[in-house]
Amino acid sequence: MSNKSFDAIKAIKLENDKSAGNLLDVMPVQVQKAEIDLSFLDNLSVEHPRLLVQSKDLPAFKANLKNDAGYCKFDAFMNNSTNKFLDVAPYAEPKAYPEETVGKASLWRPYWRQMYVSCQEAFNATRNLSIAGIVLEDEAIIAKAKAWTLQLASYDPEGVTSRGYNDEAAFRVIAAMAWGYDWLHSYFSDAERETVKQALIVRLEEIMHHLQVTVDLLANPLNSHGVRSISSAVIPTCIALYNEYPKAREYIEYGIEYYAVHYPPWGGKDGAWAEGPDYWNTQMAFLGESFDLLKSYTSINMFNKEFYKNTGDFIMYCMPVHSKRASFCDQSSIGDFPGLKLAYNIKHFAGVNNKPEYIWYYNQLKARDTEAHTKFYNFGWWDFGYDDLRFDYLWNDMPEVKPSDEPQLKVFPITGWAGFHSNMTNRDEHIHMVYKCSPFGSISHSHGDQNAYTLHAFGDTLAAITGYYGGFGVDMHIKWRRRTFSKNLPLFGGKGQYAENTTTNFEGEHQDRYCVEAGGKITDFDTESDLLFVEGDASTSYQFHNPDLESYKRKIWFAKGKVFVMRDLATLKSEQDLTWLLHTTFSTETAADSFKIIGENAQLDVSFINDSKDDLLSIENVEGFGEVDPSEYKDLEIHRHVEAKFKAKKEHNILTLLVPSKLNGPKTEVSYNLTDTTLTLNIDGEDVVIEL
Prior knowledge:
By secondary structure, the protein is of the alpha+beta class. It contains 18 helices and 18 strands. The protein has helices at residues 3-17, 58-67, 74-82, 105-136, 139-154, 167-183, 190-214, 224-241, 247-262, 277-298, 306-318, 340-353, 356-368, 376-379, 384-394, 475-481, 511-517, 539-543; strands spanning 408-412, 417-422, 431-436, 452-457, 460-463, 490-492, 521-526, 532-537, 549-559, 563-584, 587-590, 594-598, 602-608, 616-623, 640-662, 670-675, 678-683, 686-691. Strands 6, 7, 8, 9, 10, 11, 12, 13, 14 and 15 form a 10-stranded antiparallel beta sheet that branches. A 5-stranded antiparallel beta sheet has the order 1-2-3-4-5, covered by helices on one side. A 3-stranded antiparallel beta sheet has the order 16-17-18, with no helix packed on it. It is globular and about 85 Å long. It starts with a helix and ends with a strand.
């Protein structure tokens, strides 16, 4: 391995890792602090195992399994997650990324991903074989689990699977060894046990140095990979090493302090997650497991904040069961239905909070996502057989309860997300809009999309987020998906919201601070009356690139659970044109003051209905992804968007009617009358009055 390429990747990695500078003074949320008495740490068991099943409970687990092969779904755990490793030799240490790939993220990302996927498989093999060998009292399986553990202990802890080179690989390697060390403790020779222990300690110290010194996580709580290293690596490792490595207790205390005092930095009591559903997914997956392992070993309940009571609602309403491309932020699952791990996470919160509606969500995804094992964001990350075992061992299942099909609006005002829904449980009838105007702005995995929305109806996401996910920092990410011009939003004088970061070659030094300062906020909403609405102010989001913009607000009404009305109000110091964007993966038809999106099952009629239509210069269909390197979407479908261009003015007031209808069914009939500030709609024979 060339030191040059090794050091180059470590340098790139370090720059990305440290990018979320000290932002405590501009943090948009006040974190609820939990009091935790740490005296329980004085009385913990010194017996093994301690991860998940305690040594004192192991005889009962074995007895239950002898009586019922399906106890805790153990038979499925063996058949789906463990037997496949019985004849697989432990993996050799991965190789460094090829030197010629180092300069461009889109070139080295595939090697990075392949490495962590291999380490995930090694983790699954080590943990699952260790559990199976001990529970089944099978010497052959125990021998295989030992071989995996010792092989991972032979990897260079300062090499390509170090945190500094590939942290995704590092977290998996250390966690795998922790499970092997814990469950197989009495089956290692003294020399073998010491070998594994020393490998764990070196890796643990690298991670803790990064957390405590390099990024100082307690002062910089927005470092999402740093946060995840506590739950995925530090907690399980320190449980395995407790009483055997003096610093294990100190590091557990550090992790508990972080979660009690500083977490969650990305959301408030409303339960939403500013980085979006995919990053909620990874955070809650590792956090949930570490809280489960702490609960099992120490009996402490870490799910003791308002956030945890409400956070499942964020997924229910802002990553809806029936939709694709209908949520926000970086998403590796973009273009797919919500992924199966979301179902497992929300089921976990059903257990924590006794929320049977979450079981409905879980059942919907579980029944549909039968090919989950083929997707890189699953097989490189999760093991559903182990998840079932853990849930059934620690939590109570329950029958599902369907959520309401009535028109409803769920608002997460602290974090700045909202979801309108009607007929939520019926895919063929479901209409929903997800909306975002977040005080976190475009920080981290968020985008320049305050006041943006997506609209889904009758099985089609008609107003979508376009583009593909190729990884953080590739062209598609920094030149398209982070940017306002890939969203359903206006541009003023061709300019969008601030969405720079360390990967965009922007010359400013304080990108993260500017990203938060470019936040928006939900300023008003009504979730109770017949006419549901939400209003957001995204003025500051645009002002970095467009200081002449004084104010930009958007208000959206949902009438009769069928029709959306949207008002965009902007004031500027200078006359600027406005480009009103709507993105779709479907075909479009444009007219003089309106256009259509024509999907597979539904269509969306969009009309400009106030005096603003007199200012319309053009409505055009535009294809493509701007300046993105075409090699990144070779052989993939090209998406499109409609650009409605309005002439330059100091004040823009655009009123838009959005009517989704089935293609093969009764069309939603809407007429309207606008006088002064009163809009009267007639929707399928029923009048609705909106005071603008």
